[in-house]
Amino acid sequence: MCCAGFTQAMKDSISYNSTCVNFKISFDASVFERISFPDKVLWNFGDPASGYYNNAGVKSPAHLYAGTGDYPVSLLVVSAGDTIRLYDTITVIAPTTYNFGPDIYLCEKGDTSLTAPVVPGAQYQWNDDSLTTKPVLKITKTGVYTVEINGCAVTDSVGIFFSNLPKIKLGDDHVMCAGDTLSLNAASQNGNYSWQLNGSVIPGATEGQLQTTAPGGQYIATVTVPGCGTFSDTANITYSTYPAPAFSLGPDTLLCPKEIYPLTANVTGASAYMWSTNEQTQTIQISNAGLYWAFVNVASQCEVVDTVEVMYRGNKNLDFHDTAICKGSTLILDADFGNGIYNWVSDPPQRDDQNQTKQSTYYVYEPGMYSVVAQVGQCIYKDSLQVSFNDSLNLNIGRDTTLCIGEEYILHVKTNANEFAWQDGSTALSYAVGDSGMYQVIAQNGCGSDTAAVHISRKTCTCELTLPNAFTPNYDGVNDVFRPLHPCNMTEYQLRIFDRYGKLVYQTSDFGHGWNGTYNGMPADTGTFVWMASYRSTDTKAMQYRKGFVIVLH
């Protein structure tokens, strides 16, 4: 078994996200991509000055080095009786002090570059997606940039901001009817705004849009875009005393794909029309999504205006998903595609008043299969989902526990939840405990959510060999191997296991290895076995002898 593990270890490697001193560096290893639930994990960061924190028993730990230098990092992984050892050396350095200067603003897609401090023989990694490994980076898009030199980020970052060339057009001059309103739009990317009316600055008008008011006059919008310059436009908007008649293009509208939609400007006393499409008829035909407006001249005296947004649903169908709700609760299904006809079917049937609503919303009171056919204009959409009911939410991960330093311990989730996650976002039923601290699971089902937490503390234990009294070598990743429960300061270790007839079935001198419940390559019989162990305590220098029983459960 050792050789197979060694061969695979040659392909595996240790990785880390930084080399900076006084920075919490995250470690990982490729071995965990194929071994999701190892029996044992032990990291050594080669940093004795950190004391207890020099070791970690989790797959992806973090470690802070207080001093620069080379540190030997090792990883021990035990899985299904196989031991894998990985080694690496991390060179911890101080971050390079550097100043990129002020943020840079450019107009359109200008060409610029950033230069990092030149360190002979250094490796560079910028925080963009260009994979550039040189001290000079060509910038092609807006972002905040920095660089790592030999794995450690410099002390500064810089923002590069590209702006589009402003196209300011306030529109034509208009005489508006009394009581109507008109907004002017000068919005531009990254713009700073000021507005004038009849030559005077309008106090507080610093946004890209401005609502004009009677009596109106000459409006000037000035837009300054960093990197592009200053731009302005003028529009004369005045207000008549002629009263504005009612005018509405209707609510914003959602259409089905390829549907042609007529927009009509109905205004009493209308004498002329001007649409955003440059058409001058009372009705226009819409075939594309967009924002449409119409100015209508009233009795050749003044104008009224209105705007409507037309959207197209697209070819995407309804997207229901099977779900669960708590007993006694109600689920509201919403198939709203706009104004249309909706036919719902439930299996088993619900109340008649539910099945005949023809509405886009549907109330679910019982578990079952629910389907809808929605007809909107000439378009038909279909979807269905299965609704199940949950009982009250149950969640348990055990009790607060005190462990010896280095002792392995697995927490198990017992729940009827549909979804749950540990504090680090992982979703496995089992979780290997690492350092002292609070471990918690957040779970939810149709009845709500709950959190279960346990506090794990560690203490220094005397060198007392502790082995379990039973194990289950069924290769489910839980309690599959019989071996000491936690490392102990010992030498000359020897473990032997005998069947009930006194036959030796297993022996080892490596406390990292354990018995996987087999003898001569075959599973041992279910039953009780005797174990005998001896070791020398490095604390007392005395030989210790222990024996006991272990039950094999298949």
Indicate the radius of gyration in whole angstroms.
Answer: 37 Å
Class based on secondary structure composition and strand pairing: mainly beta
Distance between the termini: 22 Å
- The pLDDT mean sits at 88
Q: How large a portion of the residues is in β-strands, by DSSP E?
A: over 45%
Shape verdict: elongated
- Strand order in space, largest sheet: 16-22-21-18-19
- Uncertain segments of ≥5 residues (pLDDT<50)? 1-10
Number of strands: 49
Count of separate DSSP helical elements: 2
Q: State the share of residues found in helices, binned by percent.
A: under 10%
Biggest β-sheet strands, sense, barrel: 5 strands, mixed
Description:
By secondary structure, this protein is mainly β. 2% of the residues lie in helices and 49% in strands. The chain is built from 2 helices and 49 strands. A 5-stranded mixed sheet has the order 16-22-21-18-19, with no helix packed on it. The longest helix has 8 residues, at 2-9. The protein is elongated, with a radius of gyration of 37 Å. The two termini are 22 Å apart. The model is unreliable at 1-10 (pLDDT under 50).
What's the gist of this structure?
With 554 residues, the chain is mainly beta. The protein is built from two helices and 49 strands.
What is this structure's SSE topology?
Layout lengths: L1 H8 L4 E3 L7 E6 L10 E5 L10 E2 L5 E3 L4 E11 L2 E11 L11 E4 L4 E4 L8 E3 L9 E4 L3 E3 L1 E3 L2 E2 L4 E6 L10 E5 L4 E3 L6 E6 L2 E2 L7 E3 L4 E10 L3 E15 L9 E3 L5 E4 L5 E6 L7 E4 L3 E9 L3 E11 L10 E4 L4 E4 L6 E7 L4 H4 L5 E4 L3 E9 L2 E12 L4 E2 L4 E4 L5 E3 L1 E2 L3 E4 L7 E3 L4 E9 L2 E12 L10 E2 L18 E9 L5 E5 L9 E2 L2 E2 L3 E11 L5 E10 L2
